Amino acid sequence: MIRSLFMRYGLIAAAVSAMALLGPVTQAGVMVSAESAPVAAALGHPTSVISIEPGQRDTAAEPLGVQAWPVPSRRSYHITASCQPYAAAIRRGAAAWAGLTEGAGTPVQCTNSYITGCGGGSNVVGCNWGSGQRIALFMRGVRDGALLAAHEFGHNWFGHSGFRCAGWGSAQEVMAPSMCG
Ligand SMILES: [Zn+2]
């Protein structure tokens, strides 16, 4: 059952600046330790992803098309004024999930800096409070804003997967706890 793949629930809380100084070995260690921290689960539903290793991924991470992976229920969202510059990318991200439509529902806000109030952590680039009550995205903080949006929309239904870095290969990959470039 696909749900079981989403049972892991983590919050990555490592600083990009620290990672840049500490190098790749420590990056992996920080990720593992942050992933296993119970903070996010203990606080309920706020979830986040974080941008790590900025600029170091050399493969393009573009959606291959409309994925429309199955979800257990229908949801909707609307793009607020702060996200108008990023509306196209957000819509590409929303297309990852079947039954997710634009019009009402979850308000999507965009920030100009890392997101706070998401249950802890630093350099948080996305948050979904209350499994769809509200979503915030720091689109400029990531290379692939559509993937960030897809990830946060995914938290309407799912927690984090065991994948290390988010990608477009599968619903589980979208739900990795970290953006790696
Ligand atoms: Zn997340």
TrEMBL record:
Highest rank taxon of the organism: Bacteria
Signal peptide as annotated in the record: 1-28
Protein's recorded name: Secreted protein
Keyword tags: Signal
Source organism of the structure: Crossiella cryophila
